[in-house]
Write a structure and sequence with these properties.
With 72 residues, the chain is an alpha+beta fold. The chain has one helix at residues 32-41; strands at residues 6-11, 17-21, 24-29, 57-59.
């Protein structure tokens, strides 16, 4: 298995998820639209990236539908 290019970190208590690519922080995403924009700005070809491929994106703390921190 390859190391994912992108990591979408667990939701922060204040909302949103930090996104990193190759260890560099791209920003805080509040949904897929933000994520796609960060990937585009980082020079990644979003037309060829499968957002649901675990070998490309490591979704930590929830999948592509989780953007808010759940209170315990």
């Amino acid at each position: 298995m390859n190391t994912p290019i992108v990591v979408v970190h667990p939701p922060a208590p204040e909302g949103g998820r930090r996104v990193t690519a190759h260890g560099e922080t791209l920003g805080t995403a509040y949904g897929l639209t933000d994520l796609i924009e960060f990937l585009r700005r980082a020079g990644l070809d979003i037309a060829t990236i499968d957002l649901y491929d675990d070998e490309v994106i490591d979704w930590q703390g929830g999948n592509h539908e989780v953007w808010a921190h759940e209170a315990e």
